[in-house]
Write a structure and sequence with these properties.
It is built from 11 helices and 21 strands. By secondary structure, it is of the alpha+beta class.
């Protein structure tokens, strides 16, 4: 029985009471569990030393909560029960380690996938695994397990962590090696799978839309490293993200080496103009997103014309609608770029319809 199931069954009454002090409703594995205190709480902490802790409850962040030392230890132990897949087996998160000589750490030499889980099912699982192996092929990284074994490992990790609606981070590193770049001196590539919950953007942005700025940092030149490789070296995106957060936005637009629109730091971008849905083509310096492709298919099925083409900032400024897609972001409207209002300055009807269709897709 998992820790979650024990709490639900009332077997862990003391831990249940500790968690109940956090409020009337918590989110466990993205399922809401109503916790009611039917009896008066005894203030045992009046006779014990109080400590200040920051308790992370999946998507809920509880700042400044106070627990006794004993309660803090139990609470910490509960969250340390998360299981991570590493070295071919599931281990407690605190035991999930790799060598400090792993080239994934030393050089960002590896690949990854971010995958969503909806209703206990891994969304677009095979597409993500196919892209992972394509990335591996592109950088001459030999993944130590087969496609079917990888799929099973992801599903086992999701199940072990009671994830109903959540997120999977799948990482493959080059493995441990020498303090040099020669891949011939590396061995034992590591497969790491983490299953957790995720909330990329504040919920209110899905109602109001987000603002973007254009980053001065351009997308990596495709002649240097193909953006279609989802590598562990995300410094290009991180530097652009810093520009966005410094400007007070949660996301930033990146241009390619030709000054054309590529993508955002973590999402693909779309516009709607005169009823036509447009998005940068694959050779514009983008990662071919799984959610991007799913939304394009939904649009076609809805009778919307879809074009993959060259876009400029001017096209974004003058669009009727704009939105982003991504595994974590799903579908989220953009209402301005660099201070220019897009369309009516609110999420548009095509964006709203595609978000609705996408959410329905995730539940089927």
């Amino acid at each position: 029985m998992s820790p979650l199931q024990r709490i639900a069954a009332g077997a862990d009454s003391q831990l249940f009471e500790i968690l109940a002090t956090l409020g009337n409703q918590l989110r466990f594995a993205s399922q809401s569990w109503r916790i009611r205190q039917n009896t008066q709480t005894h203030d045992e902490e009046s006779t014990t030393q109080r400590v200040l802790v920051v308790g992370r409850i999946n998507e809920s962040i509880c700042f400044g909560r106070e627990f006794s030392i004993n309660q803090s230890i139990q609470l910490r132990a509960f969250f340390m029960s998360r299981k991570v897949y590493v070295a071919g087996k599931l281990v407690p998160a605190e035991q999930a380690t790799v060598s400090v000589f792993d080239h994934g750490l030393l050089y960002g030499d590896g690949i990854f996938e971010g995958i969503r889980v909806y209703g206990g099912r891994v969304f677009r699982h095979r597409e993500h695994i196919d892209r992972l192996y394509e990335s591996a092929l592109a950088i001459r990284l030999e993944i130590p397990i087969t496609h079917p074994e990888m799929i099973k490992a992801v599903e086992d990790t999701v199940k072990a962590n009671d994830i109903i609606d959540g997120y999977v981070r799948l990482v493959v590193t080059r493995g441990s090696g020498s303090l040099g770049l020669d891949i011939r001196r590396t061995s034992n590539p590591q497969v790491i799978i983490i299953a957790d919950t995720i909330s990329l953007y504040p919920a209110e942005l899905y109602e109001t839309g987000m603002r973007l700025v254009t980053a001065a940092t351009i997308r990596n030149h495709p002649g240097a490293l193909s953006p279609r490789v989802k590598s562990l070296n995300y410094l290009n995106n991180i530097m652009a993200k810093i520009e966005g957060t410094d400007a007070g936005t949660v996301e930033a637009l990146m241009l390619n080496h030709n000054g054309e629109v590529a993508e955002c730091t973590g999402d693909n971008i779309f516009i709607v103009k005169h009823g036509v849905l447009k998005t940068p083509q694959r050779d514009s310096g983008i990662l071919e997103g799984i959610t991007r492709n799913a939304v394009m298919k939904l649009a076609v099925d809805a009778g919307v014309i879809v074009q993959e083409c060259v876009l400029t900032r001017h096209d974004i400024f003058t669009a009727d609608e704009c939105f982003l897609t991504g595994t974590a972001a799903e579908v989220i409207a953009v209402i301005s770029l660099d201070g220019r209002m897009i369309g009516a300055g609110t999420p548009g009807p095509v964006t709203a319809d595609l978000l609705k269709r996408f959410r329905k897709l995730t539940q089927t």
